[in-house]
Design a protein that fits this description.
- The protein has helices spanning 3-26, 44-52, 63-72, 90-96, 106-119, 151-159, 179-196, 211-216, 226-229, and strands spanning 34-38, 57-60, 78-81, 99-103, 124-129, 164-170, 202-204, 221-224.
- The protein is α/β, with parallel strands linked by helices.
- The protein has one domain: TIM Barrel, CATH 3.20.20.10.
- An eight-stranded parallel sheet has the order 7-6-5-4-3-2-1-8.
- α6 links the parallel β5 and β6.
- α3 runs parallel beside α4 and α4 packs across α5.
- It binds pyridoxal-5'-phosphate (PLP).
- The site of pyridoxal-5'-phosphate has 13 residues, from β8 and α9.
């Protein structure tokens, strides 16, 4: 085994053991939590190693990068897009991303649905990204996402689009809030949405520094990069 492969393999084992502990503590099942390895900025050789180690859920933030990597790697990988969406990139994103986590407005959703229809895809999985920021006017805390007050309407509208399958909510913990409070808030928002729209029941939350808190608060999709692949 190459040095790099041993390194990634050990890091992955350590993350897996932390996931197992968090799942146990939360009284949940390991199979309820999908691990997405966030491969942005890492070279193809690292992605090949992740594939050899059995990972099949890969996350990317930029279309320019994800589109190239997806072409080079085996087709049984599920590609997740979780970066900020630029409208003019949606057409390309639609061709390679199996799941889009960062939909935060109806215009993008509607465009992605139309593009998916054109591609013959009838149920592109998407999450609505929610902003957990407490201060709307502080640009430094702005990491994208719809405001909780807009969610019910946006959910209802997106559920009517023909080629999208809206499966849940995604969020990134704001810098000025503890992950525990942030993900507790997300779980609460998710519960409200789920009570009106039962199929919108997944939660994409948790990164290298806060995935245990996310698992405790119901995350079904965790997105981990640096803890597996190292610092970018
Ligand atoms: C980069 C990124 C991740 C992974 O971050 P790490 O800290 O490397 O685990 C997860 N989600 C989003 C939205 C990201 O941009």
């Amino acid at each position: 085994m190459s040095a790099r492969k041993s390194e990634i393999s050990e890091a992955l084992a350590s993350v897996e053991s932390r996931i197992s502990k968090a799942v146990l503590k939360a009284g949940r099942l390991r199979s309820d939590v999908k691990l997405i390895v966030v491969t942005k900025t890492f070279p193809l050789t690292d992605l090949e190693i992740c594939y050899e180690l059995g990972l099949r859920e890969f996350g990317e933030n930029r279309d320019q990068e994800g589109s190239v990597k997806a072409l080079e790697l085996p087709s049984d990988i599920n590609w997740h897009f979780q970066g900020q969406i630029q409208s003019n990139k949606l057409k390309s994103i639609a061709t390679w991303a199996d799941v889009v986590h960062s939909i935060d407005n109806f215009a993008h959703a509607s465009k992605l649905s139309a593009l998916s229809t054109d591609l013959g895809v009838s149920s592109k999985e998407v999450f609505i990204q929610v902003s957990l920021d407490t201060n709307k006017s502080d640009p430094s805390s702005e990491r994208g996402g719809a405001w909780p007050s807009e969610l019910a309407t946006l959910t209802e509208q997106i559920l009517e689009l023909p080629s999208l399958d809206l499966i849940g909510l995604m969020a990134v913990a704001p810098l000025n809030l503890s992950p525990d409070l942030a993900f507790e808030k997300l779980f609460q928002i998710s519960s409200e949405i789920r009570s009106d729209f039962p199929t919108v029941n997944r939660i994409s939350a948790g990164m290298s520094n806060d995935f245990e808190a996310a698992i405790l608060h119901g995350a079904t999709h965790i997105r981990i990069g640096s803890q597996i692949l190292g610092l970018r």
